[in-house]
Design goal:
The structure is a homodimer of 595-residue chains.
Chain A (H helix, E strand, L loop, with lengths): L7 H12 L2 H4 L9 H19 L1 H9 L2 E2 L5 E2 L4 H10 L18 H14 L1 H20 L2 H12 L3 E6 L15 E4 L5 E11 L8 E10 L10 E6 L1 E3 L5 E4 L2 E6 L10 E14 L5 H37 L23 H33 L3 H36 L2 H4 L5 H11 L6 H12 L6 H16 L7 H24 L5 H32 L6 H18 L2 H11 L2 H4 L7
Parallel strand pairs in A: 3-6, 4-6
Antiparallel strand pairs in A: 1-2, 4-5, 5-11, 6-7, 7-11, 8-9, 10-11
Helix pairs in contact in A: 1-3, 1-10, 3-6, 6-7, 6-9, 6-10, 7-8, 7-9, 9-10, 9-11, 9-13, 10-11, 10-17, 10-18, 11-13, 11-14, 11-15, 11-17, 14-17, 15-16, 16-17, 16-18, 16-19, 17-18, 17-19
Chain lengths: 595, 595
């Protein structure tokens, strides 16, 4: 049975103790985001996720979405009512602009709420998730008229949004995009083409759906330089901004997928659909990148969501299922067997998941705070520094949290033995749902290339050099502390491995870019694990400093998890470095036809 | 689209070149297994798998098995006809005793044929696979009467077999087993109880199904010492050995599973079903272990099957799909983009799969040859040495080939990007089907415990010490060879890591067995990867020695794969060692309630 309690205490620890809420409340507009208010919001959100969304998770998996002959798409039973509750609760606009009806809370809070939602019901959470991404793109690039028409309805949750990028012959390589846009006399465009893998592309949750569509204006340059972004509503609006009739677009098919059955993944056919240009002509990719960067952080957290939900489900099973005896003598001598949790290998799996989850959440929250600072701070230097971190960490988070999130869901399934392979227990769904997070919003190999090919060297490598300086300082300051040695030494080794890997790229990848490509995924994981280790060192330090007896157990658990992570997870950094230093030659030696 | 060509050349290379067919033909009974005959059988088997079984793989996945209200179970369209072809082709009895109608070929050949079948259609291959396991258990433990009644029909494929072990409250921990057997006056028993996860438990392929059932005879001791094995036919036989009417047993449910939908996984209800004791009273577990050991080698190969099929499917896609440009300049300048295979990271994934597949097949074939020697050799010492290897390698193969097989299927899926998540392309099926191999026939954590807790120290550690001596000698003899340095140095490091890990257990696990449990899975993978590296070193040596121009490309590819494996895969051995040496303390620190 799927088990999930939203980790509110963890979230509060990160905000209040580890990073300090003043980082957010010092920002203009966030002055009122007090600790009490944030706690109240998180508790209310947790309740909604546990009570309303969680029970619908299996329903969504089993029923999926269905397309009727008229092209309309229905969501699983209960999704519509849950969505209404979500919208009425004001959750969609939690971090949106108050002028547009939003609550104006920090994006960091929205990230946490999205984590709770995704753990409870990933498929459901995608409907609002895509809307928030579309909101972000329109906020940055659309003119005021478009903003006023669409955004208040999206912020209120009355309408949802989508991203239409992928076409049958191109996903990553958007330069090949073929969807056409023909300018009309009234300033609108007629959009024609086929888009695939459109999450939440059609559904019955709202009366309108606002599609953001990449297309090529007639006569535009080839490749990525000729792509523009359009807003294309499912239903055309009348002069009062109310839906008045269908646009020329339709869901042609709902895909059969491995997971996230509760979300409608649509083939969208645009047949001269009316749309309006967002931002400048031929600047669509830039606008879409805003949306994608937001979305990548969101998808990173989705990886964590499945790992967390799978962990909690497996933990419950491991405490309850009686099977075998402890290697060191019966621990439940009056029962027919000991609970699974007595077995070291079961604990290894549970601790691998949990020590990842807590550090991953810390890393994600830390990065979300950078996002808030980068968007809101009045200090230009602070904005730039936070922006550097956000840019550098986003691909790392996306790749590592989703790769590990999936691996952890598989591990949770393993704890169930044969029962994990049966759909009845619900743990297989976490595996199947988690799988997509490694693929969409840029497959993880693309994240790794973005990291080594773009982010690492951006602004002359300013971001990574600042990070090395920060890490070096952190480690050096604690070098003499015996109580921190268990954490600082492995972190130091990891940081050195990361520095050596970075230098190796610097020395080799310019002459042969394939060297960067060959080591990119290992580098991304090496980077990510150093950051997770850094989070654990900081959390351990807070734990060591605790003097509040009522929180003693909370912090003892933190120390145990930190120790496990350093001993059992961090050793991978050296392996990653060796693989990176092995370079591309052995990869490129075989001619294509010899594969 | 699923793509599969059976790797006949690879199989022939292993048998003829790498290991030498004389290892088999020198054994009594196998004199006639000439190279020509074996090649002819493999080619015929390959054809059957590619032409008959492969097209039914997706059919099985989509349709699954269905249970009618009367409890009867139907297999997917085409399975029955394919099964008839399989039986008529004499494949079921390929390695069975000629006195029982078998063809008397080496078990090694059967393992290779099972690989081809599993790659083409894993669900289908399980029906014969379980029959062969049941055959093995009856051959060793049943009396002549039972053998004569059941085995000829199983060898001919007229009847299939099953294993009934698991019950709702116990899988691994068979001591908790509750199914009862009540002795009858005629020497038979009435069997009552519920068994779950019974693969091929009921189906419409054959007129009878021979269940091997573990049950507790009334008054038997508790725990594993009171378990007996019974043969329980679906249909009771008349005096001529022909099915004459239903036994009191029924499929109560066909489980909904993550994968292998084409195989019927049944809840089996025995309600006073008539059965006959196999072997001695209360010795059932011993008999079942014969079956399980055979089955574990079979399941190990199943892991390879999904990795191989997924590799071939992903390779085809990587050669054909045009997306992005090479980092070193366009390789397909006249096309809209380069094929995926130009990208180093795509090659990394393909090479990870393929270098695993070829070494895993070598390791499995090597172990299968040990099985043939252990069963057939007239030399007692040779039998003992081969038996040691078989016992030691079986859990390693099962754990490593299925863990990596699954990971590789996931990797193949990743190469497809979004298309991999859509069921249409067929690659998701490999992931979902591969998943079960890590779980059934003893979850991989159990394999690891079997390895470190039982196999490693069996006969005073004779098996592992012999292996270290062999490995040490192999490495030392080639220490001065510059042409082998790329392979010998990483193998040496790996072998040293394995020795250190083994010593660490020796020094620590006696005082605290949890240390062995904590490191068991890492040890299994460390062991497995040293063996895979050993296979690659031997294959590379054959490649370097080749003087046949017509095979030059075959061997150049081998060398490239060997180099990749040594550089990119072997570095994990040191990481595994470090984790093992980290011990159990950080795993056992947390009280159960703190998880």
């Amino acid at each position: 049975m799927q088990v999930y309690t939203a980790p509110v205490e963890e979230a509060l620890f990160l905000l209040n103790d580890l990073f300090g809420l003043d980082q957010l409340t010092n920002l203009p507009g966030y002055e009122e985001a007090s600790a009490d208010l944030i706690e109240a919001i998180l508790r209310e959100g947790a309740k909604f996720c546990e009570e309303v969304l969680l029970p619908l998770n299996v329903v969504g998996d089993v029923q999926g979405c269905t397309r009727a002959d008229d092209g309309s798409v229905s969501t699983p039973d209960g999704f519509k009512e849950a969505y209404q509750q979500y919208a009425q609760g004001g959750w969609m606009g939690l971090a949106a602009d108050p002028d547009l009806g939003g609550q104006g809370m920090p994006a960091t809070l929205s990230i946490l709420m999205n984590e709770f939602m995704g753990s409870a019901n990933l498929s459901f959470s995608m409907y609002p998730g895509l809307t928030q991404g579309a909101y972000a793109a329109l906020m940055v690039h659309a003119n005021d008229e478009i903003k006023q028409i669409y955004l208040p309805k999206m912020v209120s949750g009355e309408w949802t949004g989508t991203m239409n990028l992928t076409e049958p012959h191109c996903g990553t390589d958007l330069g090949q995009l073929r969807t056409r846009a023909v300018p009309q006399e009234d300033g609108s465009y007629k959009i024609s083409g086929t888009k695939i893998f459109i999450s939440a592309g059609d559904h019955d949750l709202t009366e309108n759906i606002i599609h953001l569509v990449l297309a090529r204006i007639e006569g535009a340059p080839e490749g990525t330089k000729g792509i523009s972004l359009f807003v294309v509503p499912k239903n055309i609006l009348d002069d009062n901004g109310a839906p008045s009739g269908p646009n020329s677009l339709e869901c042609g098919k709902v895909e059969e997928k491995m997971g996230i059955h509760g979300n409608s993944t649509c083939v969208m056919n645009f047949d001269g659909a009316t749309g309006w240009l967002v931002g400048e002509e031929n600047q669509g990719l830039k606008a879409m990148f805003v949306m994608m960067n937001e979305a990548r952080l969101g998808v990173a957290v989705q990886g964590l969501t499945q790992s967390e939900a799978a962990y909690q489900t497996a933990r419950a099973y491991a405490l309850e299922r009686l099977q075998g005896r402890s290697l060191t003598g019966a621990k439940n001598p009056d029962g027919p067997a000991d609970p699974l949790i007595v077995h070291p290998d079961v604990r290894r799996m549970l601790l691998t998941m949990r020590s990842f989850n807590e550090a991953a959440r810390a890393f994600a929250v830390y990065t979300a705070i950078q996002s808030d600072i980068a968007h809101k701070s009045e200090d230009e230097k602070a904005r730039a520094a936070a922006g550097d971190r956000l840019a550098l960490f986003t691909p790392v988070l996306k790749g590592v949290l989703t790769d590990c999130g999936f691996d952890n869901a598989v591990m949770a399934q393993q704890i169930f033995g044969g029962h994990g392979f049966i759909e009845e227990t619900g743990v297989s769904q976490y595996v199947r749902d988690a799988r997509i997070t490694m693929i969409y919003e840029g497959a993880n190999g693309i994240q790794a290339l973005d990291l080594v090919g773009r982010k690492l060297m951006a602004n002359g490598g300013r971001g990574i050099m600042t990070l090395f300086k920060e890490l070096g300082g952190y480690i050096e300051e604690r070098a003499g502390r015996e109580d921190m040695a268990d954490f600082i030494l492995p972190l130091k080794r990891g940081a050195e491995d990361l520095q050596k890997a970075t230098m190796w790229f610097g020395e080799n990848a310019l002459a042969n870019p394939d060297h960067a490509g060959a080591g990119s995924v290992d580098y991304m994981h090496l980077f990510g694990h150093v950051m997770l280790g850094y989070m654990w060192a900081q959390m351990a330090e807070k734990a060591l400093a605790n003097e509040d007896d009522s929180r003693a157990q909370f912090f003892e658990t933190k120390l145990a998890l930190a120790r496990f992570f350093m001993l059992h997870i961090m050793p991978q950094t050296t392996m990653r470095l060796k693989r990176i230093q092995a370079g591309a030659d052995s990869l490129m030696a075989l001619p294509a036809e010899a594969f």
